[in-house]
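Many introductory courses stop at the sequence. We go one step further.
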Amino acid sequence: MIDMEKNVGFLLAKAYQRASAIFKEEFEGYELTPQQFGLLGFLWQEDGLSQAELSARSQIDRTTIGGLIGRLEKEGLVKRLVHPHDRRAYQVCLTELGKAMEDQLAPLALKTLARFTAPLTDREVETLRHLLNKLRS
């Protein structure tokens, strides 16, 4: 018999649900999902990534990434341009609003992470990060 309360998949799903709930509370008033925020984060690190590069870095499939980028476009945070080196591809660039949002949203993201990881020690957070990266591969 499976003990669901000890099942790693179940525990990961419940942890994700808790993280999403905290994100929703902290980001109230912003029309962003955690996935959309993640894409902005990648673009704040390196603006002008291709849609395929964003898909690979975020590990979000190409179909889904197109919809996420479309919603960020509607919010005026990014724009899609024809890629300068590949006319079949799109380059995703932050708008001025998208760039400016980093100053507002980055502190919220840190607050969200602090709330989510509050029960853990710094060492446990590092261990968790290490283990999740191993599972991600």
